[in-house]
Design goal:
The protein is α/β, with parallel strands linked by helices and 347 residues long. The chain folds into 3 domains: 119 residues, NadA-like (Rossmann fold); 84 residues, NadA-like (Rossmann fold, 3-Layer(aba) Sandwich); 87 residues, 3-Layer(aba) Sandwich (Rossmann fold). Helices cover 40% and strands 16% of the residues. The chain is built from 15 helices and 14 strands. The strands form 4 sheets. A 4-stranded parallel beta sheet has the order 4-3-5-6, with helices on both faces. Helix 2 links the parallel strand 3 and strand 4. It is globular, with a radius of gyration of 20 Å. The chain binds 1,3-dihydroxyacetonephosphate (13P) and iron/sulfur cluster (SF4). Iron/sulfur cluster binds next to helix 9. It is an enzyme of class 2 (transferase).
Length: 347
């Protein structure tokens, strides 16, 4: 059973200060890196980082990956403590999958606008309007929403998850409308109802911006995350022959890494949160990666600072807990999710 962690002494802790953009006061230098490794070893902690984290956090983590890959590690790890450098729903999912572990998020204020776009009450009402429908929820949802869900998915396996469900069953897909449209297009199903939620970062990567960048870079491949506002435009550009359809790839963050490894050279326009560029450049240094929108930065992901990570490991905070009844109701939907689809760590 998880237990509250006692604080550990650290010579750097006195420098940590709180501010409007999160915990700060610490440089990500060699002294910091050594202290993080020392504290993680003392706690028997595994550090997981999402691909949208700042480079210093990605580089110190034991594993960096997409939501699916990191959920799988959280479910399987032998470590006693999971430090989730990502946003709150990710740490919650880790706790649901590994209830006996202590799960820490370096700053519990790191939320998600997409997860906030549907509540458990709204989903309950929606279900009542469609009795018998199966609920497919994107992993970017709260534990309360997952507890009302039949199967969760991530962007990397959403199509496979929906294809695994009986064709005659109505589906309530939530909360991301752009991912929902992608799934509907790919599966060809017309019995999918889609919730009108969105991520403010990805919704802000617009169709006109993509069209302009594609025109400026006519030889480039396009890697588009299906949460993007420009996802439909990418399909349109390909359909009209404005961009060679072979060059348009709808990919989760983990799938982008796989694609970059296979591609090896050339220019790639990347439509997703800009933290992704760090892993992509490491995976394929010969490719010239360019952001479609270089302002597409998730301020929640960026709350996981070097100071926040140090504080979390030293003080044993912020601990993420999910009430046992909610976790028990949500677990099956996450277990179905991690059983479907590709690895998600760009291997
Ligand atoms: P993945 O592509 O890693 O599933 O995640 C996208 C995302 O927006 C996570 O916040
Ligand atoms: Fe949520 Fe969007 Fe940030 Fe991902 S990028 S954590 S979906 S707000």
């Amino acid at each position: 059973m998880a237990h509250k962690l006692s604080p550990l002494a650290s010579p750097l802790l006195h420098k940590v200060v709180d501010g409007p953009e999160g915990w700060s006061g610490i440089e990500a230098d060699d002294e910091w890196a050594a202290e993080i490794r020392r504290l993680a070893a003392e706690r028997n902690a595994v550090i997981l980082a999402h691909n949208y984290q700042i480079p210093e956090i990605q580089d110190i983590a034991d594993y960096t990956g997409d939501s699916l890959g990191l959920s799988r590690i959280a479910a399987e790890t032998d470590a006693e403590v999971i430090v989730f450098c990502g946003v709150h729903f990710m740490a919650e999912s880790a706790k649901i999958l590994s209830p006996e572990k202590t799960v820490l998020i370096p700053d519990e204020r790191a939320g998600c606008s997409l997860a906030d776009s549907i509540t458990a009450e709204q989903l309950t009402e929606w279900k009542a309007e469609h009795p018998g429908a199966l609920v497919v929820s994107y992993v970017n949802t709260t534990a309360d929403v997952k507890a009302l869900t039949d199967v969760c998915c991530t962007s990397s396996n959403a199509v496979d998850v929906v294809n695994s469900l009986p064709a005659d069953k109505e589906i309530l897909f939530n909360p991301d409308q752009f991912l929902g449209a992608h799934v509907k297009r790919e599966t060809g199903r017309d019995n999918i109802h889609i919730w009108a939620g969105e991520c403010h970062v990805h919704a802000g990567i617009s169709g006109p911006e993509l069209a302009r960048r594609a025109e400026e870079n006519p030889e480039a491949d396009l890697y588009i995350h299906p949460e993007c506002g420009c996802a439909n435009s990418a399909i349109y550009l390909a359909g009209e022959g404005i961009v060679d359809p072979e060059r348009v790839h709808m990919l989760s963050t983990g799938q982008m890494l796989d694609a970059a490894g296979r591609q090896g050279s050339g220019t790639v326009l990347v439509a997703t949160e800009i933290g992704m560029l760090h892993q992509l450049r490491k995976a394929a240094p010969e490719i010239d990666f360019r952001a479609v929108n270089d302002r597409a930065s998730c301020s929640y992901m960026k709350m996981i600072t070097p100071a926040a990570l140090l504080r979390a490991l030293a003080l044993g905070t912020d601990e993420v807990d999910v009430p046992a009844d909610t976790a028990d109701a949500a677990r099956a939907s996450l277990e179905r999710m991690i059983a479907i689809g590709q690895p998600g760590l760009g291997e």
